[in-house]
Amino acid sequence: MTENMMKHLILEDKISRIVGPIVCIYLLWLAFAAMFNFEALMISLAVQFVVLLGYMVIEPLISRKKNQLN
């Protein structure tokens, strides 16, 4: 395993430790919204779609820029 791969794995682990609890809270929010407030569920899913779409557009640009620097 190269040093670059090890740095990448450590970074992924740090990100997972931060994002993991946020995802769990969001899933609980979706479950409660599905049970009690359908309108809030639909708004949450629409926001999730926009965030994921933004990530899908921006992430390849960041990766390409990062690869050009190395």
What would you note in describing this structure?
The longest helix has 34 residues, at 3-36. Helix 1 runs antiparallel to helix 2. It is built from two helices and no strands. The relative contact order is 0.06. The protein has two domains: 1-36; 38-69. It has helices at 3-36, 38-69. It is mostly helical and 70 residues long. Keywords: Membrane, Transmembrane, Transmembrane helix.
Which whole number gives the mean pLDDT?
88
The shape is elongated
Give the low-confidence spans: none
Helix content: over 70%
Separation of the first and last Cα atoms: 18 Å
Task: Specify the number of helices.
Answer: 2
Keywords: Membrane, Transmembrane, Transmembrane helix
Transmembrane segments: 15-34, 40-58
Keywords:
70 residues; mainly alpha; 2 domains; 2 helices; elongated
Write a concise synopsis of the structure shown:
The protein is mainly α and 70 residues long. It has 2 helices and no strands. It is elongated and about 50 Å long.
List strands and helices in order, with pairings:
Elements: H1 3-36, H2 38-69
Transmembrane segments: 15-34, 40-58
Keywords: Membrane, Transmembrane, Transmembrane helix
